[in-house]
Amino acid sequence: MTQVTADTSYTMLLGGLLVLGMGMGLTMMPILSGALGSLTDHQIARGSTLMNIIQQTAGSIGTAVMSVVLTNHVLNSPAATAYMASPKAPCPPTRCPRPSWPKANRRWPKHSAAPTW
Question: Hey, where are the domains in the chain?
């Protein structure tokens, strides 16, 4: 998955994700079974609950961290800088005009579901 580019085919992506998913499934189940197997009978319920909580929390934190890293990488790339400098790019938030709201009742215009810019 480290060799993925914009020209990578879907077949290569699906193949890599298939291998990754099978590897995770084949390694996580024995690890979790071994961890639960080392507990006594009255500890299994709490141990299973704790492992599920840790797994969900770690997955959420990992997803958030990777999202921030990817966003910063994309925004600092030369392609993003060139896109933001192009005339087709959306205006930066500091220079965008404010939406024009109807003055009478301050509601959305009846003809659209979004404010007019």
Answer: 45-78
